[in-house]
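S1.2 Input.
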Amino acid sequence: MFQIVFNEISAAELSSLGTLEQLELIDEFKVGQEDLANLNGDRFGKIDRDGRVLYRFRAKDYRFYFEVKDGAVIVHRVLHKGTFSDFKFRSKMPLAEDEAVANSKHFWKLIDEGRNARRL
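S1.3 Output.
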């Protein structure tokens, strides 16, 4: 298992949820090397654009977007699934969720905000 590090944005997104929901999500969010080597598309996914690689983990109605760096999982954002489902519905793109997200400039702006946030 990797050490999991939340930045101040992802920590705030998580802390905006109820305590019980936070605990359930954190309990589900476990990332090992084998998970990243065998992405199943259901719980784990990979988002790649212009050489930038992020991973996605689905837990309940939320998506954790993270990268692996220096032996740690760095969580950039924790977002409700409706955020990108609405995007996909409005744009009527015949793509999988990860592919649609990878092409969204708005998504990468959210991730950049997370990358630039202070780690907790």
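S1.4 Remarks. Strands lie at 3-6, 44-49, 52-59, 62-69, 72-80.
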